[in-house]
Amino acid sequence: MPSSPLLIIGSMAFDDLDLPSGDARDIVGGSATYAGLAASYFTQVRVVAVVGEDFPAHTLDDLGRRGVDVSGVERAKGKTFRWWGRYAADLTSRTTLDTQLNVFADFKPKLPASFAESPYVLLGNIHPALQLEVLAQMKRPKLVAADTMNFWISGERKLLGQVLEKVDLLVVNDEELRQLAEVHNLKRAARAVLKMGPKRLIVKRGEYGALLFEEGDSFFVPAYPLEDEVDPTGAGDSFAGALLGYLAQRDNTDRSTLRQALHTGATVASFCVEGVGTARIAGLDAATIRARTVELRSLVHPGD
Ligand code: AMP
After folding, report:
1. By three-state DSSP, how is residue 155 classified?
2. Which atom of ligand 1 is the closest one to the Cα of 239?
3. Residues 168-218: pLDDT tens digits?
4. How far apart are CA 173 and CA 179, in angstroms?
5. Which of 58, 9, 17 is nearest to 33 (CA)?
6. Is the CB of residue 264 below 6 angstroms from any atom belonging to ligand 1?
7. How far apart are CA 294 and CA 149, in angstroms?
8. Per-residue pLDDT tens digits for 37-81
9. H/E element holding 296?
10. How far does residue 229's CA lie from ligand 1's centre (Å)?
């Protein structure tokens, strides 16, 4: 089966998580960490990010053992990016209490020569200026996908607009979509955002699944119903990582492959929620993912 490399830029972080089950501190996270792990089950992954002197070497080694090429992860003087989030008791909403860019403040991504040829690119949630800098160094990628967050929508809207003009696929959650479009109704908001540049838009809706919008077509995938929801941090990044990893593995972006990729993204995201930080997402295997994807599909397939 063809498999193409996927390049991911995003954050590598220490997260402080206030969860209903208790506070978790100094948890290794970040959009590139979650997306990289999720994608590694499907294709060869290359990560571009920066970490500080305090970032554990074994985390990068673990990613390397999973086949993720971390030669584009720079270790800079200073502290690693840090994020602090507090979840509501039912885990359906969260508040950002603090974001410290630290080493990301002065980061100038420089892609290793081999990375620039990657056919699939995920501009993970990070400063849109960095997303643009990575894109400028890429040589004719087949598919550019991007994710973002309220922090950048409110703080860097203009630069984010430039990113949107250059992406094929935007992956955001419903709150971010509404904020970006400044429209509440999801369909209208989707139409407005599709006019900003992306040809396709995926809207993640947590426990309500995800929607795909593109010219003349839309598609829905449910969320896998979980019994034990522990920590949703990184579920969105895992969704995007697995989705892109699947497309890269198939080396195909047609409608039916994208629909299958949505099932895969939803499945991998559900695993992420079952553990604190990357605990669950780091210990999966292809057979476990496949079995749950089959279960997810049968949830909405009425049979003959
Ligand atoms: P998600 O739950 O999928 O939205 O992703 C949460 C992850 O995103 C956490 O591991 C954070 O470290 C990371 N994160 C939070 N805020 C930002 C930000 N402004 N830029 C980049 N990464 C962030």
Report:
1. helix
2. 3
3. 999 999 999 999 999 999 999 999 999 999 999 999 999 999 999 999 899
4. 10
5. 9
6. no
7. 30
8. 999 999 999 999 999 999 999 999 999 999 999 999 999 999 999
9. helix 286-300
10. 19
